[in-house]
Amino acid sequence: FTLHSYPGRAELTLMAIAIQAQLQTLGIKVKVNEVADIGEVLEKGNFQASMYSIGTSGDPQYTVGITLVAGAAYNYAGYNNPAIENAFAELRAEQDPNKRITIAKRIQTEVKNDPTNLYLASPPLISAYRKGSISGYVANPNDVYLITKELKLNQ
Q1: What is the distance between the alpha carbons of residues 34 and 150, in angstroms, rounded to a whole number?
Q2: What are residue 152's DSSP bridge partners?
Q3: Distance, CA of 2 to CA of 155 (rounded, Å)
């Protein structure tokens, strides 16, 4: 099969080459195809497999909602699983954090039993600044940074 990647996230092509080498030992032939515009390839839907990078969130509704439900922005394969659709609707409506965790675990089990996406890596969070040069900075585990009124440059 052909595994597409793109140079915008160079680490993905390196991971694709590693996957190719590992599958070759099992007798599975993989052609790695790096394309300039991965969005075009995915949107046309004419692909067997693809590397792609998305942001994540601490809320399980986010990743499921952008990748695994009908009409989701990154559901390029057209994946459809009624159990996930129903559980996602419950998750969206539920406010109780403990109940949301229970629903998210059901979705996780369903994804394990009916995989469409393989989640390969989560990049490390790297922050660098000179001690004492700023105040009000809080590292965000989702690697999302916004300039807020609390962020100050100390002179």
Answers
A1: 42
A2: 135
A3: 54
Per-residue pLDDT of 95-120, as tens digits, reads: 999 999 999 999 999 999 999 888 88
Partners of 31 in the β-ladder: 2
Q: Using alpha carbons, list the distances in angstroms from residue 147 to 51, 57, 64, 127, 133.
A: 31, 19, 28, 15, 15
Pairing status of strand 31-34 against strand 2-5: parallel
C-alpha–C-alpha distance, residues 40 and 34, integer Å? 13
In angstroms, the CA 6 to CA 12 distance is: 7
Its pTM stands at: 0.74
Dihedral sign (CA 44, 87, 98, 104): negative
Angle at 13 between CA 71 and CA 50, to 5 degrees: 25
Q: In this structure, what DSSP letter does residue 11 have?
A: H
